[in-house]
Design goal:
With about 140 residues, the chain is mainly β. The protein has one helix spanning about 100-105, and strands at about 1-5, 10, 15-20, 25-30, 35-45, 50, 55-65, 70-85, 90-95, 115-125, 130. It has one domain. Strands 6, 7, 8, 10 and 11 form a five-stranded antiparallel beta sheet that branches. A four-stranded antiparallel beta sheet has the order 3-4-5-9, covered by helices on one side. Strands 1-2 form a two-stranded antiparallel sheet. About 0% of the residues are buried.
């Protein structure tokens, strides 16, 4: 479903279900009709704790909003996480939707690494214009 937030920026709203426990991690992203776009289930990797500030990362994404490009900075502080290389017993459901189409276009062969963060902090900054709308 597409709408606009209070600032005039477009937003996408979809169902997202995530459940992480000591034994299994499951996630499901709904498509526009409420069906399954992508779903994943796998054993939860053993978790390691990290001191605050020791595993901080930043990511900048770019989005076109009303014809002008904007950059959005997100910063993550990982406090507890685990990784499984070539995970076993992973179940992936690729349904119908935008994320499923994107995954199919990549033509993946196999899952190489599965990361699960059970505790962390995220700072998502407001989008900043990087270009001007052309008329």
């Amino acid at each position: 479903m597409r709408g606009h937030d209070g600032y005039g920026f477009p937003k996408w709203v979809t169902g997202l279900d995530v459940d992480i426990d000591a034994h299994r991690t499951t996630a499901r992203v709904a498509n526009e009709a409420g069906g399954t776009d992508l779903a994943l289930s796998a054993p939860t990797p053993a978790q390691n704790s990290y001191p605050s500030g020791s595993r901080v990362s930043s990511l900048t994404s770019y989005t076109s909003i009303d014809g002008a490009w904007h950059s959005t900075l997100s910063q993550t502080n990982v406090l507890s996480a685990g990784t499984a290389l070539v995970p076993r017993n992973l179940q992936l459901t690729v349904g119908k939707g935008r994320m499923a189409d994107d995954l199919r276009s990549l033509k993946p062969i196999r899952t190489i690494q599965f990361d699960v963060v059970t505790e962390g902090q995220l700072a998502l900054h407001m989008p900043v214009p990087t270009s001007v709308h052309t008329r």
